[in-house]
Specification:
Shape: elongated
Order of helices and strands: HEEEHEEHEEE
Oligomer: single chain
Helix content: 10-25%
Number of helices: 3
Distance between the termini: 30 Å
Number of domains: 1
Structural class: mainly beta
Radius of gyration: 20 Å
Number of strands: 8
């Protein structure tokens, strides 16, 4: 029979060196004022000025050989560098509509391809400016949830190249330039020390 001490330590990180845990690999990009594609997960910590606040990748475009991440959800976050002006809100909605997300593993076909509106979980994107002072008209408001659960998990194996491509098909508005878009690949991380 196991001792009380052994039972209390069971399942802890002390004893679970090869187990699975909930984990996210993340990376960010800076919004530029141009049409084009930015590839994420290519600059690890220490490259191109990236710190742990920007990414937790330690190698460009691959996981360590001792890891496997079963991606069950894609999380997306947006951070402004300045407060939005009225026109910036509509520019933000336009950017969501005209930007795409693609995740590709190795040289296989694209695993997932989404419009940024879908990734953010927003079905209505409408800015509202009252035409008469004091107008307070009710309208449907978007509910951003920023977590896109996958019906079919995507497996990222150690030492296998992968990338996320964010493509702006319309140049983002000037009020968005310099803002940050964060992508997080969340799921079960299996590690071994072998």
């Amino acid at each position: 029979m196991a001792s009380v001490n052994q039972m209390l330590q069971s399942g802890s990180y002390v004893n679970d060196v090869t187990g699975s845990r909930d984990f996210s690999y993340y990376d960010d990009m800076v919004i530029a004022a141009a049409v084009g594609t930015t590839t994420l997960f290519r600059n690890p910590i220490g490259v191109g000025g990236k710190t742990l606040a920007d990414t937790n990748m330690v190698t460009a475009g691959i996981l360590p050989s001792t890891q496997k991440l079963t991606v069950r959800a894609i999380k997306v976050f947006y951070a402004t560098v300045d407060a939005f002006a009225t026109a910036d809100l509509q520019a933000f909605y336009t950017m969501l509509r005209s930007t795409t997300f693609e995740l590709q593993v190795s040289n296989k076909p694209v695993d997932i391809q989404l419009n940024l509106m879908e990734l953010f979980g927003i079905s209505l994107a409408a800015a509202f400016t009252p035409t008469v002072a004091g107008d307070n008209l009710p309208m449907i408001l978007p509910r951003f949830h920023g977590i896109f659960p996958l019906n079919r998990p995507i497996v990222l194996q150690g030492n296998v190249q992968f990338e996320v491509r964010m493509s702006h098909w319309v140049a983002p508005g000037a009020g968005l330039v310099g803002d940050f878009l964060f992508i997080s690949l969340n799921g079960d991380l299996d590690s071994s020390i072998g």
